Amino acid sequence: MPSTKPLPIRGSRCRTPAVTCASSGAPRNEHRVPLGKAAGIGRRPVAAMNGRLSSHFKAMPPWAVIVLGLALVAVAGVADGVSGPQFSFSAFYLIPVVFTAWYAGRGAGIAVAVAGAVAWLAADVAGKSYHKHALTRIWNDAVELSLFLSAAFVISALRGRLEREEEQARTDQLTGIANRRRFNELAGDEIRRSRRYRNSFSVMYIDIDNFKVVNDTMGHSEGDRLLRQVAAAIGGSIRESDTVARLGGDEFALLLPEAGEDAARSVATKLRERLKAEVESRWPVTFSIGMVTYLDAPATVDDMIRRADLLMYQVKGGGKDELRHEVVARGEGE
Fold it and tell me: With a threshold of 0.70, does the pTM exceed it?
């Protein structure tokens, strides 16, 4: 149990300053490799620019990506027709196909691929290319179309596979909810949003009391079923904008965007009732919960989690099966 002054329980309002926790409840792996050493200072501006550009294209609606792809095809077709048969422009037709398939999907990529083949044929005709046999032009265009279609299929399949792998990397495989990595990403986004718009938000740190007893007496498979049920119970009692994550073992976290003191208490009351009905009635467990409402954003995600973690450990040290709620006033979050 951390050697700090106990905080009021059951949603009491608290104006304590930020706590530096060195207890066993503090998050591990605090070491950070300097960014310059890990990635190279010289590459940071380029990487940041590429990231912003990619995010911009991802945010575009599919129809806008298709229009942009068709515009690039038109530019390539005009340049191909003007330059004549002496120069090959196949690669320039491929660029919009790859771009569209990556950012708008296979169907859009196929549409742009067909448009690219038509533009290539039109440029061939406009350039008055000579072909000994009439079928040569048709054959060449068919080859170009097959090349463009292959690119659309391969790129869209690669993008789909990468998206599935990214989703798996951000999902807890046992419960199907977000994992620590995904939670940290969303929490970081919420901190930045809170700083920009001065919105409050809340976070809960939830620990299952006596989970080890369930594993030891009922088996690990029963422990897994308990974890899945806890995830389902939490997920069924929160808003669509909220995020529940399993941080590891029997510890869960809940992020409540734009939730002030009253909204957080309402969610916590509903959550505890559902946990009692769906979990505590079936397994010999209870829940220790630490909840923090930030009227000002904390400095980092680690600071945000640490504060809620500390409250949770105070509950465990004081008898378990309780909720402690702290409200961090403006000016105390940083």
Answer: no
